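Re: the multi-chain job from yesterday

Posting the exact lines I submitted so nobody has to dig through the queue logs.
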Amino acid sequence: MTGTRERIVTAGAELLRRNGYTGTGVKQIVEAAKAPFGSLYHFFPGGKEQLGEEVIRTSGMMYLALFDIFFADEPDLLHGIEACFASAAETLRATDYADACPIATVALEVASTNEKLRIATADVFTAWIDAGTEKLRKYGLEPEAARRLTIALVNSLEGAFVLSRSLRNTEALDVAGISTVALARTLLP
Amino acid sequence: MTGTRERIVTAGAELLRRNGYTGTGVKQIVEAAKAPFGSLYHFFPGGKEQLGEEVIRTSGMMYLALFDIFFADEPDLLHGIEACFASAAETLRATDYADACPIATVALEVASTNEKLRIATADVFTAWIDAGTEKLRKYGLEPEAARRLTIALVNSLEGAFVLSRSLRNTEALDVAGISTVALARTLLP
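And the result, structure tokens for all chains:
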């Protein structure tokens, strides 16, 4: 039954990303996962909320891995930032503006309505900020500057996803890339 | 019955902002508006979707008016930007991190699921970008620079709202203010 649990989390992640937490029903999730209905409560006795928490944490950690892709072997910080936003823009266009941040929709939905899930999103954002700060320090940034640039990068990316998905064009992501690079220039030693 | 319609829109705006579109029921809205249930369909024959569209457009236009507050009589662009983010941070803290952008949650929810409401959010963002661009031009910015700065400001604000509401602190908003000011410095003549 190992595969079933994984399929439920994967299907849940896809549905939550596209439809949000309240917009997704558990029935929809098991159907998309081609899993028997009872298996959801077998693996997630806490039901939708427990699955939601696991989806937030799992998707969040997978997204965090992207930091490595863009910055691990990149000697130039500004190129790394540009590549990051260019790739996000390409993914958005390729998926008809559906695949953006895996947890932002849910994060906004639960921020004032579900404390358990709010904390899961906060843990994910904290992990991103900590990992990004460490990653960006290798470009010679002071800890506080690296943290500030990481937060600015996440701010711009998340905000641009809202605009780009709504407007169905990537202008906001292009501007986000340009403005994050501009900030990076002021912070580099 | 004029007051009833207004109360429904106001209650709808408040509920959609906090709980999202799918997380809000029409019953909840009429109850919060202290309106008879039938009045919702009397004023909004298209039901929840029609009300949602009006709420998005009305809230969006009210939020747009904030641009005037921060930039109308402000001789210094950088002070205007700082005041904008400082005020957003203060509002978030004062409302226990509930009152941020009136349409972002809904915008993400409907981006891939409801084309009519997606267009309403796109019209709002377009109005913000156009109005902001015009407003910022008076600081001597070229049209393209004014547009870029406006989009960067909205990106940073929207993204910082996601992080700040999730993390329950205003660090992301503080960084958003600093990075938008940094970009503005590079664009000013």
